[in-house]
Amino acid sequence: MDFILHDKETIAEMLTSIGVNSLEELFQDIPVDLLLKKLNLPHGLSEPDLLRRFEELSHKNKIYSSSFLGAGCYYHYIPSLVDFVISLSGFYTAYTPYQAEASQGYLQAIYEYQTAITRLTQMDVANASVYDGSTALAEAAIMATVATQKKKIILLEGIHPEYVEVVKIYCWGQDIHFEIVMEDTLISKLDESVAAVLFQSPNFFGDIENVTELVQIIRDKAPKCLVVQVMTDPTCLGVLKPPGKSDIDIFVAEGQSFGISPSFGGPGLGIFTSKQNYLRKMPGRLIGKTNEIDGEREGFILTLQTREQHIRREKATSNICTNQALCALASLIYLVSLGKSGLREIAFQNFQKSHYVKQKLETIPGYQILNKKPTYNEFLVKCPNINELIEQCKQENLLPPLIISKYFPNMKNIALVCVTESNSREDIEKFIHAAQKASKKNMGGN
Amino acid sequence: MTSNLTLIFNKGTKRSQHNFIPEMDIDRADLTEIIPSSFQREDLPLPDIPEVEIVRHYTELSRRNYGIDSGIYPLGSCTMKYNPKINEVITRLPAFSHIHPLQEENQGALELIHQLSEMLIEITGMDGFTFQPAAGAHGELTGILIMKKYFENKNLKKNKILIPDSAHGTNPSSAKMAGFSIIEVRSNDAGEIPLDHIEFAMQQGDIAGIMLTNPNTLGIFDRQIKDITNIIHKYGGLCYYDGANLNPMLGICRPKDMGFDIVHLNLHKTFSTPHGGGGPGSGPVGVTKELVSYLPDPSIIATEQGFVCREKTNNSIGRIKCFWGNFGVIVRAYAYILALGAEGLKRVGQIAVLNANYLRVLLKEKYHLPYDRICQHEFVLSDRGIENDITTEDIAKRILDYGLYAPTIYFPLIVKGAMMIEPTETESKASLDNFVEVMIKIYDEIKTNPDLLKNAPHNTPVKRLDAVLAARKPILRD
Amino acid sequence: MDLKFPADLKYAPTHEWVRMGGDIATVGISDYAQHKLGDIVYVELPEIGAVLEKGSVAGEIESVKAVSELFMPLTGEIVETNGNIADNPAFLNSSPYGEGWIMKIKVSNPDEIKNLLSVEKYQELIEKEED
Questions:
Q1: What Å distances lie between residue C60 and A245, B295, C12, CA to CA?
Q2: Spatial distance between the Cα atoms of A187 and A210, rounded to a whole number of angstroms
Q3: What is the pTM of this model?
């Protein structure tokens, strides 16, 4: 199949208008030896054949009835209107709103997104989004070095290991010094040369930091150092104190939890916010509200574009060009669909259900919860036999938790469990049952 | 004329109950036992609006927005082609949309990425691909970091890079993010790159290579492309292909055969995935054999036991994004390639170029065409000869009044008052003729009624907006 | 173009003007520079107390679609900047030689002053640029 609208006659007519004899002649600038003889690909497929092919392929992936896996990608219920709205062709077939007057719908929606995110986080400014949580954190690190004119950043242990790798590669690109430290040595590492401290909370292991206190400790030792917080599941902000109330300088998050399907880990949404002082150093697009030149009405427009690559070129903070507009729109719809009371309730249920599972697991011989700090929907549990737990979960048709040694080889027999509002009581009972069976098996029972 | 639309936050109606919260089916503990109250927020200033209101609000907003489903979207270098609807169905199949990036039973996903990789290898001639980059600019950064690592491994200090003045703005910006400084190459009168400049620059010894797009942003295929890449290679440099303009080359000519070592593609341009108002995109990067081991981790390998994921390779630059890249976009691009097949893809290249040249010959009758020769996917008009103080921006705004979208304006920078036009292959002759007719009408209006342009647009939901006010007193949220 | 270039000022080839008063140089951008940039929306001022070389970048001037660097016309210490233009960058357009002044420099090498351009020389330079 194809999506060409001309028949042979039309093509001939157009060629005549152009003044050439054949389609081939349009490629006269290409040296003959560079012309491709034949593209060695299969014939095209019709829609039904295509669909069948993909259905077959997709069946090689397994879908579970319920998930206990998180680690940066989460299963939350997505209201059906989210997909409906992002499928409206005025949104999904649009380009970047360069011509503001013909793009008011999208511009307003993204302005609403920026508003929703600042209200949620209580930060001063939110941009129109960046690629995902990991690149948002890397961009935040770069932005901090630009804002402070210093070339060293510190990462606190507990950041998603894949995020750490991304920050590392961005830093390597610009010769920024990079160090990961444990919480108890943080103070000793802080001095005048540090541009920023980056930390995650709730962190990769589930711990919720006392953010206000942490910021204060850093400020006392290094007043000019920026404090950057990252989050992988910001639904917790339905209950938790927002970063803007803890004096955070730059706050970033993965926004996939807000109405975006897991989709094998992408696309997601890089939520990016900061204090007002750093606005001019912020990467990415910003939508502003303005007025008609000769009129009364308000409207929306891309603004402060001089920060961006297409004007500032090599002097721009970032090379980012796109945002994740459609994902930002999805998250906006998610946030307004749930609203104040709904988001609170979602966060509440996540706290409650994971707490419930934690308590249940601790009653089973051999399991030990390792978190010393409060947790949200993820926590670490030491297992009597982790492989058996994984196996039992699969038998119950549950997506098993993460074996954390995948990222931290020294952490043996430890699972990172994620429980959200999407796990029903029945799912939870099955999981507990799987854990019990794994425990018994390990002790020689069955 | 429509009036201003209230922000969603200011809708009056409140809902009485929740549609999206599952019933709480376990006993509730006291929340402060789980999380201290000092860790909790006091207020959450989000609205509580009924579902019907939300749907109506955003349906109205979507009407106030032009999309490719509305009509021609002639933005140069953006390749705004039709987004096939079947791709939306396919990417939403539950066993694609609902799988976790860290789950073990993922053979379908790995196979899909691997197969798409094989196909892009055939289309570009390269030897290996990564799908981690989330967009074109992200692909550029990945590609340039590969260059950096390559020279680091060879212990060669090459910290500069050649970029033509016609390049996309992301090129210099991406190169800088990888720590390179930029040497700009000036195009000659034919819009091509002077070989002697390249030769001279490369003799200095500290240049890592060149970033090029071919056809370039003038829509011109550089006839000496092979000589350019040969010179770069002669001095040990690498050649980077910005694939933003690959569409007209589909089935016609391959970046590898032109002599490129690294290429990024924009799946959201060439391979029909929706632009979504500015994302999500996908910017896979392909490289030649010598550089395959430098691609980001992890890589997918086909074995007899199925597809496996190799976590770390020695030369790899590392990881440029969490997980596997924008999988949802990757699925759509693969569906597009399978749907079109070899013949369909070649036809894309041919008709994209046919459509662009058709517009070019009809529009140059009225508007100044600084590089007057056969173009590829796009061409650039200038504002020379436009009278009555009318600017390119005025023309763009007037186009909106006719219910169409404007070309890319004021880019490339090397053309004064540029209008860069790329119709793509998915426009009918009638649609192209209509665009020409509008452009000619506007040309006449410039002479007969310039005020109509100066105050344009008139028929859009708002009149021309004050960009100066927006930048002087930024209001970025309510 | 109806642009004004006061004869009592000195000019730098990078389009700054200089008004000397004792060892203090008041600096702004010329009518030509503001006209070229268009509506100015933001000025990034140097830090007070900074000592900068002639020709080095002291700040940035932004219009909606362009960024231009502000260069030091003379070597010296920044002793004062015009706080009013932070809130009203339009002064650079409406009154480039008055309310739109940008910074005051305590000149450390008075010999450099004679290398600045006279109004005649500066206008010649502009004519050349316009060709």
A1: 32, 38, 16
A2: 16
A3: 0.96
What subunits touch chain A, counting only 3 or more CB pairs under 8 A? B, C
pLDDT tens per residue, range A18-74? 999 999 999 999 999 999 999 999 999 999 999 999 999 999 999 999 999 999 999
Q: Would you tell me the crossing angle of helices B429-448 and B327-363 to the nearest 10 degrees?
A: 60
Residues B160 and B305 in one domain: yes
Integer Cα distance of A322 and A319 in angstroms: 10
Query: What does DSSP assign to residue B169?
Result: T
- The Cα–Cα gap between B384 and A337 comes to 51
Q: Is A359 exposed, middle or buried (0-12, 13-18, 19+ CB in 10 A)?
A: exposed
Query: Do strands C16-21 and C24-29 pair parallel, antiparallel, or not at all (unpaired)?
Result: antiparallel
Cα distance from A258 to chain C (closest Cα, Å)? 33
C119-130: average pLDDT: 91
Reference A322, options A307, A309, A331, A303; nearest CA is A309
| CB-CB contact of A101 with A293 (8 Å) | no
* Residue B175 domain flag: yes
CA distance B142 to B297: 12
Residue C3 and residue C127 in contact, taking contact as beta carbons nearer than 8 Å: no
Q: Which residues in chain B are contacts of A77 at CB distance < 8 A? A: 20, 22
What is the rounded average pLDDT for all residues in chain B?
95
| CATH class, range C10-109 | mainly beta
Q: Do residue B142 and residue B291 come from a single domain?
A: yes
Taking Cα atoms as reference points, which of A73, A66, A69, A63 lies closest to residue A417? Answer: A69
How many helices and strands in chain A, by DSSP H and E? 13, 15
CA angle B361, B367, B372 (to 5 degrees): 50
Scanning every residue of chain C, which has its alpha carbon at the shortest distance from the alpha carbon of A302?
A: C64
Question: Where a domain ends, among B340, B362, B380?
Answer: B340
Q: Do A286 and B476 touch (CB under 8 A)?
A: yes
Of the candidates B435, B436, B424, B426, the one whose C-alpha atom is nearest the C-alpha of residue B245 is B424
Question: What single-letter DSSP state applies at residue B109?
Answer: H
Radius of gyration (Cα) for chain C, nearest Å?
A: 14
